[in-house]
Amino acid sequence: MEITQLFSSMPFAELLGIEVTRAEDGMAEARLQMTRKLSSNTARNVGHGGVAFALADTVAGAAVVSLTGEPAPTVDMRIDYLKPATDDMTARAEVVRRGNTSAVVDVTVRHEGEGDADAEDGYGSAQGDEIARARGVFKLGVEEGSEHDRDTDEIGNSP
Q: What are the protein's UniProt keywords (predicted)?
């Protein structure tokens, strides 16, 4: 299965509507359509911070797997939220360091589309604006069948 299909068909990515559109040579891109169900605000369409985080984590993982061809679980990820997510989002991830046991990935999440000063949403966010910047660390060398690749029960416990 192609990397973009693999990541786009993960149950959690499907639930949120994350679509990985490109993954090659340590770089990946993804998009997410902002819907009312992803909003943290009942009065306006403002994406919950966890949505941008999940998009960043997913696209970062795809970037790593595009280099290694192996599962690469997230060890750590931090995110800086710059503006509210009020429209569809895109994310771009790039592996900036690959060591023997881990890889570091930088991610930028933006409102989809080109910058347009007339597209203000009331929060000072226009198309193309950065919503968030993230950096993740991913474990390398995870083999199929290892504890990081095992099935778990409904609450995440290994069998």
A: Hydrolase
